[in-house]
Amino acid sequence: MDNEIQVDHSETLFKLYALQPVLSDADQVEKLLEPLTYPKNSYSKICFHNISFGVDAARAAEPMLSSLRERLTEVILSNIIFSLALEGCSLKTLDLSNNPLGEKGVRAFSALLKSQSNLEELYLMNDDITKEAAKAVTELIPSTEKLKVLHFYFNRTGDEGAVFIAKIVEASPSLEDFCCATSWIGSKGGVAVIEALAKCRNLKKLDLSDNMLRKEAGELLAAALLSNAGLTEVHLAHLSLQAEGAIKVGKPLTRCAPSLEVLDMSMNRITPVAAVVLANCVASKQFLTKLNLSGNRLTDTDGHDRLTEVDMSGNFIRKDGATCLARAVAGKPRFALLNINDNCISEEGISDVKVIFSGSPSMLGPLDENDPNGEDDEWDEDL
Predict the structure, then answer these.
(1) Which end of the chain is more exposed for a tag (fewer CB within 10 A), N or C?
(2) Which Gene3D superfamilies does the record associate with it (predicted)?
(3) In 3D, which of 136, 38, 146 has the Cα closest to residue 91?
(4) φ, ψ for residue 235 (rounded to 5)?
């Protein structure tokens, strides 16, 4: 067997992955996929990772895959050529990530997508999902009533495409995990998505990071957060919320999501104006384990015994703020890492912080990029 191709399988999972980009030999494919033809096999999940099939190879694979139609519940594909072969499968999980699909590619999967009424997880990450492709997804999948996980991130969806994503969200009352990070969504598209999220009631994980939603999204986000009391992870990094937006998010978040474990509001140009609100929010979360407020303009944060990681890098923290942070977390029984690099901490402040962590130096991140003379004139006041 070609040493660039690996087969890994368990009782129910058949996984094929390769370093070579294309499988073109039909005989080789028949040999690789032979376990799928064994009598009484129990495969219900297939994963073809990083593999493209040539025409002859695909023709050899098609009947083998078709024989599993009635049993398959989870499919990870990197080739549109098997859409017809898998038509009629009643899947719970469909992962078409890391394919340059665009609208043409999505519609090439139409036979497979049109037969999916029981999907619980759908992954379309890094698929060049433009507005046309997003529209195609909404048109082709007949029902998302049972959908619990929807990951759409790292695409070129834009504001107009976000409207179609919002339609999927609205039609997914069971949604628990939603991510559309890094999808070129601005304020207009963000409004559509957030309004749809506000109609959800079962969200546990939410990730809207790296979209230019701006501070105007803060008030709408408040409604979405309050509607989903079971949230355990909230990722709102790099949304350009500024202090005004952060306050509008922080106040309602203080009153909801009691089981929150992860909060990421990094890179939002948040000034100290919002610090008290965010500190109160953090203090109210008994189960919070990871807090990321890096890349803002804050000076301190609050915490509690369950915190394991705090990232306050890239702010304008000076000696007093750094030592307060160090003292606040150094004695916590579960704490693992404090990152306060890329701030304005003096040499004396760095020495003081190192003394505080002298008994557990591995809990302190690097401090080599601090600038004790750093100025904040590159920041514009947003309030």
Answers:
(1) N
(2) Ribonuclease Inhibitor
(3) 146
(4) -115, 110
Rounded to the nearest angstrom, the gap between the alpha carbon of residue 357 and the centroid of all alpha carbons in its chain is 32
Kindly report, residue by residue over 45-87, the tens digit of the pLDDT: 999 877 778 888 888 999 999 999 999 999 998 766 777 788 8
Tokens of 62: 């098609």
Half-sphere CA count of 307, side-chain side, radius 13 A: 25
Name which of 225, 291, 290 is nearest 258 in CA terms: 225
Sequence spans of domains, the chain: 1-89
Structure tokens at 279: 């500190």
Q: Is the pLDDT of residue 369 over 60?
A: yes
- Which amino acid appears at position 228 of this protein? N
Integer Cα distance of 284 and 145 in angstroms = 33
At position 41, the amino acid (one-letter code) is N
Q: Which string of DSSP letters, residue by residue, matches 337-370?
A: EEE--SS---HHHHHHHHHHTTT-GGGB---TT-
Measured distance CA(107)–CA(139) in Å, rounded: 10
Total residue count of the chain as it appears in this document: 383
pLDDT tens column, 206-220: 999 999 999 888 889
Q: pTM here?
A: 0.84
Identify residue 128 by its one-letter amino acid code: D
